[in-house]
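2024-03-11 09:14:02 DEBUG pipeline.ingest accepted 1 chain
2024-03-11 09:14:02 DEBUG pipeline.ingest length=350
2024-03-11 09:14:03 DEBUG pipeline.predict start
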Amino acid sequence: MLNLSKRLFVAQGFALPLALFYSRNANAAEGFDFQSVRANYLERIRKIKNTGLLPIIDIESSYNPLEIDLSAFTRSMDRAGIAMMCLSVDQPGKLVEQGAIWSDHALESFVKFPEYFIPTGNGGNHPAWTKFPLDFLMALEKFIPGHNYPLMGEFEVRHYPSPRQISRGAFFRDVEVAIDGPLMERVFMLAEKTGIPFQIHYEIEDKLLEPLARMLGKFPKAKVIWCHLAQIRYQQRSTQYGPAMLEKWLDQFPNLYIDTAFGDALSRYQPSGERHARFWSDAQAWTNLIVAKPYRFLAALDIGGDRMDKIEEWTKNLRYFLNRLPMPTREIVAYKAAWKLLFNEELGSL
């Protein structure tokens, strides 16, 4: 591990307090090389297909690097038929408070289990993103291109506490960062410069739509994954969003992608009392849109540090949604769309 006591990291003319890099495996510093693992990724997809399961690339999940058993985790992936996961580090608060704003653990996980993981940059979440955003952005700007990450993590831009967080009183997850403000503008700029996609948790509300549209238009080469299709937690705050509106946006903004991590038809958001997975209330219209534009929709589990043991259960829920889609749309959303977005290759028959 790097000594975190009084180390300074200097970037862009600024001295940042302590170390920004928390590493337990020097090999991770070599970064990600797609060509070295491409054949292994494809072989894993083929093996899962040969079992009769539809392979899935999970575009959006995260974990606490201090609280994961990678061997057990990969065994759960095998049982669930998850080919690869884009697994992003949620840097623990105790390390952030010591000055370790960034972690390369996603690369370490890839080094240990290369055919299972697609290294993903640290999530923009509490406390690194909420308490130390400038330091976090400097680390992001250095390590994302420096280590060849194919994907940035999920940025909490407008984020209400999840049902699980509400149940345990974790209201610090009520986050609001202006998507058209200086912090997110740097993320858009990095994505446009590098071609590396990033993810946003951005609640679906009328007042938030125009700023997002403006940024998508201002940075047309920045590939943005808007997480959680049709997840609306307060219906009275969202009167515009729906299949027709999103179809117009996908036509207008070719740099916009949507992940499909959302709850089941009975999932409720406690503060509003509403069933917030709106896909199910208009499932056929949403399905028609996905069939029309399958490469813009990405399978996602949204596994997190408080649900690391839920891979198999949540994969069943994801497959219930995927099975509603006709072939070949189902295969595209399950893994081919993610492959094309991340690696700029269109997969044929395997």
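2024-03-11 09:14:41 DEBUG pipeline.report Residues 231 and 249 are 17 Å apart (CA to CA).
2024-03-11 09:14:41 DEBUG pipeline.predict end
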